[in-house]
Specification:
heterodimer, A: alpha/beta, seven-stranded mixed sheet, two-stranded antiparallel sheet, 11 helices, 12 strands, about 15% strand, elongated, B: alpha/beta, Aspartate Aminotransferase, domain 1, Aspartate Aminotransferase, domain 2, 2 domains, three-stranded mixed sheet, 15 helices, about 40% helix, transferase (chain A), Aminotransferase_I/II_large (chain A), acyltransferase (chain A)
């Protein structure tokens, strides 16, 4: 066995030596001495080039034929557009026959109204109705265009200035729909990658705004300052290096879902310690809290320029439609630029 | 299709390039100035990073005075514009007390209901006194009045569907209804030039979104077939439902949608059709019922009809019309119905009165006259502009006409020159339109008279020659054959 192997090896090495010593293996081409090894290397190079030029094996693609697509389209059955209507869905709310003031008419009987958010009783107030009638006769009902294209009426600008003066901020921006105030304001400031710490019990518009902004959202327990402090601590520890990271706390002044009031002085203390910006939604507190109705900042005796952004839907104490967004000087500059181009 | 001349494309790219380079220079100097003066952020992160608002700060602010012009009168055919001045090179603008009366070609006042109307306004004031400006509550919690119920019935009858639901704002109607109708596992196929509200609603719904080329039913069919055959991405399960989103009149193009073909394709492949008639309801069609009437499509074939009241009815708000079950489901699940304050009662009354005028139920033929006038006005204006050599987009009968400008410098030039001649126009650029295709958008109203339109045409001709936007050769001017025909240069 070993001797056969040895013989084969000897034969192979004899062949090799022969190849190396062959006459053409000793040629001199262009002054370069060609030894036999160059011949073998040349052969190897040819083999390599041949292999590289081969196409790699790909499993053959078989796109669907027209007939197959037709069959699939025929087979496909969509779900019905809406699920089956159950009895709960058939609920019809009662229809009011007069203004939604403290007493209202339903089906001819007078009832006491505990459902409307008419905190200051301004529904049906004579002065309001007079002012509205005057402006209806002058301006008509609609603005027939967005703010950028001849939809800005001088009363809009006057209203913004008046609200800013009332709250003590440099300027404000009006929105035409209360619900969209919060879910437009949040994406204007919070972009992808920012961190938002928000209370668990906020209402739908804020939740929707958070989703639209695509930022990282961290929840803390409803109205629990200890939980908020822990969350802020955790977020700051995790993101120590990111200086460009914008960080926000979103709270409501009076929570729509539970009725609790947020402890603003505590929140401002935490915000200044950890360098977060605060977004406060004062829909239910503007006009209702504070000795002159200026909202939670007055109630908790916090200077209003410590709160970065204040939004409010005006369909509660102010008895009208729409929303407003205001804040301190830096924030308003930015929002004006963003909003004007939007 | 818009075909941009080669030379114009080159000059437009060059202009934008120049603006970009200048903007970068100024940003660079601003960075140095900030570092020198020291930042006063006190450890807070800056609200806006460098490049996010570059376009706004360096390009938009230069021409800021062409947008957001305040008015001091109702946005009717003639409007009082408040003049503004800027002391810091257009960064901020202050109102002055001066007012100039201008011809309004920018507001969406298609049927002329913007100003106080003899039939609508007394009824609106009456309902204001009865129901007060706001109900202060959501629809389900005591914000539904008899007026709201009446409004929904009237709208459903007008549009031609069994039932309708009304919301307080048009934009929110799209953004809040799409997520309620379709969710994860569904497919949305939307036209490539759909409005921002539709795009937001589609994104917010969580469904997969695909786009088909603007107004091309063939491409829609191709996309549908491909998607049904492939199924959901990665898992290849069959789609739960497919919805196709189109608009009646596209606001930036002025074109009508090819509705009969699209509806036929959707029927064949069992997809649902959602039609957004924001600009077309009330303005086109023989009795003002929108694009379905104009193109002869049965409203029962379109699953969901959506529209807004801001444009033709001079009010505010949006509606969805569909089958009774659909509307019942919407009332149960749509967040804009459950959490938002209901539409203001005087605004609701304005819509009801406007619809009554359009249908002729107020006893006069003002509605029919208005519809005929807006059709005549749009066709006259469009044909005259095309004769003068402007590049005008859009179909016949559509009251929206974009006139192409292309170069960024022509945008403020056109706007300011027209304002000097007492004509107020709207110009749109990036990001509402593609970068190269800036345009001026003209909206015709039924309250424009023939003299108003002729004055506007004269001004446009003058300004067009000055700026150089007559991209097509003007047609040779015919001799005065018909009486009353004004000879236009």
């Amino acid at each position: 066995m070993a001797s056969v192997a040895m013989d084969m090896l000897k034969a192979a090495s004899d062949w090799l030596t022969f190849a190396f010593d062959a006459p053409f293996a000793r040629a001199v081409v262009f002054g370069v001495n060609i030894g036999g090894h160059l011949f073998v290397e040349g052969l190897l190079v040819v083999v390599i080039i041949f292999l590289l030029s081969q196409k790699s094996y790909k499993p053959p693609k078989r796109p669907l034929t027209k007939k197959e697509i037709d069959e699939l389209c025929d087979e496909w059955v969509p779900e019905p557009l809406i699920p089956k209507i159950t009895d709960d869905m058939k609920y019809e709310p009662p229809a009011l026959e007069s203004a939604a003031g403290p007493h209202t008419l339903i089906n001819g009987t007078e009832v006491i109204n505990f459902a409307s958010a008419n905190y200051l009783g301004l529904v049906g107030h004579g002065k309001l109705l007079e002012a509205c009638t005057r402006s209806l006769e002058k301006y008509g009902v609609g603005s027939c265009g967005p703010r950028g294209f001849y939809g800005t009426i001088d009363v809009h600008l006057d209203c913004e200035a008046r609200i800013a003066k009332f709250l003590g901020t440099p300027d404000s921006i009006l929105y035409s729909y209360g619900l969209s105030t919060m879910f437009s304001a949040i994406p204007a400031f919070c972009k992808k990658g920012d961190v938002i710490v928000v209370d668990e019990g906020v209402h739908w518009a804020i939740q929707n705004g958070l989703q639209l902004s695509r930022s990282t959202v961290v929840y803390f327990k409803h109205n629990d300052m200890e939980s908020l402090r822990n969350m802020l601590e955790k977020v700051t520890q995790e993101n120590k290096r990111a200086k460009k990271l914008r960080r926000y706390i979103v709270v409501e002044a009076v929570y729509q879902n539970s009725g609790q009031i947020a402890p603003l002085d505590e929140i401002v203390r935490l915000k200044e310690k950890y360098r977060f910006r605060v977004l406060l939604d004062e829909s239910n507190s503007l006009g209702a809290l504070g000795s002159t109705g200026r909202g939670l900042t007055e109630y908790c005796k916090v200077p209003v320029d410590k709160i970065d952004i204040i939004t409010a839907a005006m369909g509660h104490a102010l008895a009208t439609e729409g929303g407003v967004c205001t804040g301190n000087a830096r924030v308003i500059d930015h929002q004006y630029i963003f909003w004007a181009a939007a | 299709m818009i075909t941009i001349p080669y030379l114009t494309a080159l000059t437009t790219y060059f202009s934008y390039g120049l603006l970009f380079v200048f903007g970068q220079f100024r940003d660079f100097f601003r960075k140095i100035a900030d570092w020198w003066l020291g930042s006063n952020l006190q450890g807070y992160a800056p609200i806006c990073l460098g490049l996010e608002d570059f376009y706004t700060r360096r390009l938009y602010l230069r021409i800021q005075d062409c947008f957001g012009r305040p008015i001091a009168s109702p946005p009717d055919s003639w409007v009082d514009l408040v003049e503004r001045v800027s002391k810091d090179n257009n960064k901020t603008l202050q109102r002055t007390a001066k007012i100039s009366r201008c011809l309004n070609l920018g507001s969406y006042n298609y049927l002329g209901f913007a100003a106080a109307d003899e039939y609508c306004t007394p009824r609106v004031i009456e309902s204001l006194k009865r129901f007060s400006p706001s109900t202060c509550s959501t629809r389900v919690d005591g914000g539904t009045t008899t007026l709201h119920n009446e409004l929904e019935e009237v709208v459903a009858n007008f549009v031609g569907k069994p039932a309708a639901i009304v919301f307080g704002m048009g934009y929110v109607t799209n953004s809040a209804v799409l997520p309620a109708l379709i969710g994860k596992g569904g497919l949305i196929i939307s036209d490539s030039l759909n409005h921002n509200s539709i795009v937001n609603g589609a994104r917010g719904s969580g469904a997969t979104v695909r786009v088909f080329q603007h107004n091309m039913p063939d491409h829609l069919e191709k996309v549908l077939r491909e998607q049904i055959a492939e199924g959901q991405p990665r898992t290849h399960r069959p789609w739960k439902k497919i919805m196709v989103l189109v608009e009646g009149i596209y606001s930036m193009e002025g074109e009508l949608c090819k509705l009969p073909e699209i509806v036929a394709i959707c029927k064949k492949y069992r997809a649902y059709v959602y039609l957004d008639e924001a600009h077309s309801i009330g303005a086109i069609g023989k009795t003002g019922r929108g694009v379905c009437e104009l193109l002869g499509v049965d409203t029962a074939d379109v699953d969901i009809l959506m529209g807004t009241f801001t444009k033709s009815f001079g009010s505010c708000g949006g509606y969805i019309a569909g089958s009774k079950e659909l509307i019942q489901y919407m009332k149960y699940s749509c967040p804009a119905h459950l959490y938002a304050t209901s539409i203001s009662p005087p605004a609701a009354q304005q819509i009801i009165s406007a619809i009554r005028v359009i249908l002729g139920e107020d006893g006069t033929s003002r509605g029919a006259q208005k519809l005929a006038r807006i059709r005549e006005n749009s066709n006259f204006f469009r044909s005259e502009l095309q004769k003068m050599g402007f590049e005008v987009l859009g179909d016949n009968d559509s009251p929206v006409m974009p006139v192409m400008l292309y170069n960024p410098a022509k945008i403020p030039a056109f706007s300011r020159e027209c304002l000097k001649n007492q004509v107020a126009v709207v110009t749109v650029a990036f990001p509402a339109t593609p970068l190269l295709l800036a345009r001026a958008r003209i909206c015709i109203s039924a309250s424009h008279t023939r003299e108003d339109l002729i004055k506007a045409l004269e001004v446009f001709s003058k300004v067009g020659d000055l700026i150089g936007i007559k991209y097509f050769p003007a047609e040779p001017d015919k001799q005065q054959q018909d009486d009353g025909r004004v000879k236009l240069e």
